[in-house]
Amino acid sequence: MEHPENxxxxxxLQVNGGVISQPTVNPYLKFRPLRRRELTPAxxxxxxxKGNVSILxxxxxxxxxxxxxxxxxxxxxxxxxxxYAGESRRIGITGVPGAxxxxxxxVFGLHVIRQGHRLAVLAIDPSSERTxxxxxxxxxxMEKLSQEKDAFIRPSPSAGSLGGVARKTRETIVLCxxxxxxxxxxxxxxxxxxxxxxxxxxxxxxxxQLAGTGDELQGIKRGIMEMADGIVINKCDGDNxxxxxxxxxxxxxxxxxxxxxxxxxxxxxxxxxxxxxxDIDKVWDMIDRYFDYVKKTGYFDLKRQQQxxxxxxxxxxxxxxxxxxxxxxxxxxxxxxxxxxxxxxQSSFTAAKDVxxxxxxxxxxxD
Length: 367
Ligand code: GDP
What we know:
The chain is of the alpha/beta class. About 50% of the residues lie in helices and about 10% in strands.
């Protein structure tokens, strides 16, 4: 077959040497650092105090990080924010899944914002570690609030023990307060240990309950009721009103049997509807009255001082434990001792003493 392009008249098919084209990208660009400049602790503090939400978010991420170098910066930022913190109402909100926490926080939050406040919603969700995702504090669960510029919503920190997660939330409170949020909600699922952690960082503890089948008091841990400064029965709407009112009466009776609270405040029981936004102001009046009361009696400051002490001791406990259990030699010795204890070759007490002696000896030799 004839190939016309092989004919010498088709000169155009020849490949000519190219010309060097002008660069389309600024050649000096590569000399610029590619990564954003890392913020210094002073930058963080400055941004937070000015109410810069993006910097606040980044600082919270640092607080939540487990990397040592992030923690070093985070701790410095927290300490420098402390003088700006403390001026807020910290409110813990708990209730079993389905009680209506997110619906209620959405409307309580709007109520607070309409009164001219700025609100941070944080969460402690011990399950978030297991499920690889927090079920609390999720922005999509609080549709109205998430569109408010005066609301800062942050899901639960997910890594670490409950103590670790709670400590991070407590530190985040400090940052939020320094950023000008004067109302803090800390949400948790009312099913276990996390309430104690929340209770140890808030001024007011609100328990959301549902009217059920007549035996409402069953399944509620006595300890949680004892911690509550207010119990509110949600979903008091439609044909549920009577049942909700009955449940409220039952809770009131039950509370009579409890010892007086340390603040001497008598916990109140109210009904409301988060979904239909009924009696939200009544719930809020109760919380206002509580704050007036504890500020007048001095219990507000006393409780905050006790909480500060509690968290110092908690932090020491946690650091000691983590330092101890992270040493490979200690872990190896523990394993040996465990075997001996299980085989009845050594008592638990002397085995523990041996491991501790080894640990302390090791600390001494390090100096
Ligand atoms: P959470 O798991 O405690 O956060 O509960 P949600 O806020 O997600 O509410 C659970 C369900 O109860 C949802 O289907 C809500 O629409 C519904 N719910 C919440 N509050 C009310 C209320 O006041 N009245 C009624 N009838 N339903 C409600």
